[in-house]
Amino acid sequence: MPPALLNSELFLQKCDSLTKIKQLQSHLITHGRFQFYPSITIKLLELCALPPIANLPHATALFHHLHAPSTRHWNAVLRGLAQSVQPTQAVSWYAAMSRSSRRVDALTCSFALKACARALASFEALQIHAQVVRFGFGGDVLLGTTLLDVYAKVGNLVYAQKVFDEMPERDVACWNALVSGLAQGSRSGEALALFWTMTEDERLKPNEVTVLGALSACSQLGALRGGEKIHGYIVDTKLDTHVIVCNAVIDMYAKCGSVDRAYRVFEGMKCGKQLITWNTMIMAFAMHGYGEKALEIFEEMGRNGVCCDAVSYLGALCACNHGGLVEDGVRLFNSMAGRGMVPNVKHYGTVVDLLGRAGRLQEAYEIVKSMPIFPDVVLWQTLLGASKTYGDVNMAEMASRRLVELGSEGCGDYVLLSNVYAAHERWDDVGKVREAMQRRDVKKIPGFGYIEVEGVIHKFLNGDQTHVNSCEIYSKLDEIKFKIKDYGYVAKTDQVFHDIGEEEKENALGYHCEKLAVAFGLISTSEGTPIQVIKNLRICDDCHVVMKLVSKAYNREIIVRDRARFHRFQDGLCSCRDYW
Hints:
Distance between the termini: 76 Å
Number of strands: 6
Shape: globular
Strand content: under 5%
Mean pLDDT: 87
């Protein structure tokens, strides 16, 4: 090895800053050797383009000094761009390389695909996939896994499955990518089926990444039984030594309605608790309406020397909100500044919701007006929702105007304002709102709910008659209506905001998806078995009353998870204490 090259190699090992890189670069250029040692220039590019230095402008400038950059030179810069905060630049770099005389290799495609995954660049990923096939790289297992991962992340699960099916060899990483993709793409049942298939193959034993995807799938479906089985697998395989896995188990139990199990996992953790562990537990209690318990965990953090962050405060504020702890929530919000914490828009949104739910609309509005940051759509929607609850037409109209100014096209905004008008029997104004919805082609989101029975997920829409047991379900609903009238039930027809007769209103209320799901639960499970339903929208007042009475009349615990929280109905009462 020539002395100059040897000295350069030795100096490269000490290049831990941009200054030293520039010194070596100057030395090579001064002695006319910059173009003649590709191994040195490739290493220089890698050092410059990747962390901890990651100075991409200098890396590209250095690259352009090369007369005939090789594939490895191109790849060095491409890899850095793919890991940068602007991964789309990597896609552009790949396109430029494809137009050059330099041939791309499997690594080039891999770096570019990883950039597509980070940038959610679906169309570009398809183009690169076509080139992968054309260049003959289709048999590369690592590249296949990367392709699968990018399709999963951009939501193209059809192509992800196709790549998976065509792979000549599979490893745990490709199964993990598909499990996570299916879970994130609302195909949770398939994700769980794939997980259990993996457990039966000695070569593809699930690892901590796999169980995270499977637990996420259970959380989405509210599949408590499936979650329990996966937790058992985690314990048996000693995967509970990973704190991230324990955090996911806590979150799964909370989202599947078993906050007690979540807390037992939290208390029994042997791998040590991280800040995210405490935050997950706080939010779990908040979702279930256990405000006091959430605040206890929040205070316990400090006693254990764990510094709370913005997420901790948000969880504690949500707990106060769902638990009706108005003064505690206001005190907590005001204490943030004293701990050097600057509230963000989510903190403001939660305290506005807290005051709005308590009927303190003017206070909520004053907070919105005094915010140092611009109020977003969610804040005005929160105020509009509170206006609907308390029938404040003026506040509702003002919030609605703000939403229009911000360009909000959510169907919920129109529905809430329409409901405020309808509650005051201002049918002409209701008609104007509906006309505006039609002009702007705003569609109302259909309500639907899920229930798990013997490991099978059953989905119901409002007024659904497509279920195989539809006749029995509707017969059971008739029985329920007759039975709960003995407990004083009167349909809350004031919640049906249409200018129609009382009987039609009762029919509109009677077949909401959660009622159908509970009726199916009653005919499909043994006496005393808890019934759990997941609903995509907020539970309505009438369904809330019905669930309380059904829990008493049939001696069943009924758990409903709506889009905001859990309601646990037992013996005629709800865990939310009728505050939600």
